[in-house]
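Field: COMPLEX_INPUT
Field: COMPONENT_COUNT = two
Field: RESIDUE_TOTAL = 245
Field: MODE = joint
Values follow.
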Amino acid sequence: MTTGPADIHTAVFGALADPTRQRILELISTDGSCSASSLAHDLPITRQAIVKHLKVLEAAELISSESVGRSVYYRVRPDRSTEAARWLADIAAEWASRGERLRRLAASRDTMGS
Amino acid sequence: MDDASIELSSEVSTEIDLPIGIDDAWDLVTDADALGLWLDGDVDVRPEVGAEGTIRFGRADDPTVLIVDEVEAGARFVFRWASSTRPPSTVEINLTEPLECPATTRIVIIERRSLAPMSGFQNRALSLAAR
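Field: COMPLEX_OUTPUT
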């Protein structure tokens, strides 16, 4: 079975739905590159649990991994993160416009009622 | 817009304060004609759990299909929507009357990407749209 854009989109937001994975992504983004062991110092969960979260983030193409000696280092993939951020920004802009129209509509009804 | 928060998550939230009571605000967020005015589309949906409806935005041929999931009169309206170009997501509209400002209504809207497989709800939406 092939993985299409829709599946990737679902995988991205599925990965981002978990607060721990959001935190892991933030830590990797801040440090530039992290191993599971270094993340374990900053998070109240086991290294094993972190590795599972990293696999989900990597499957969603939000991070990439690189083996250096016996360690695996993870980096944020800006392309996928940017795509997710763009979707969120588009949706936020749509709701900003709708909210403004709703506010104007309510104000007009308030004026008519008073 | 009072606040629109964006962060790298799976949801967007918006908070709006309206200068009207909660009953009038409820009508604005559930009546199809009023919804159409502020969603900027042609809305056909009943605020009943399980109701299926459509929104046509502008001149787009492809309607967005809605399915109503929750209705708590005067407090909460939740629906899913999707189209061939809009990935499935859930929209929660929550209404409260701020204690510090009676006769006004605070509305918090959260749109959350559906994490269900695309083949489920969106296929249903597309088949409804084709009717």
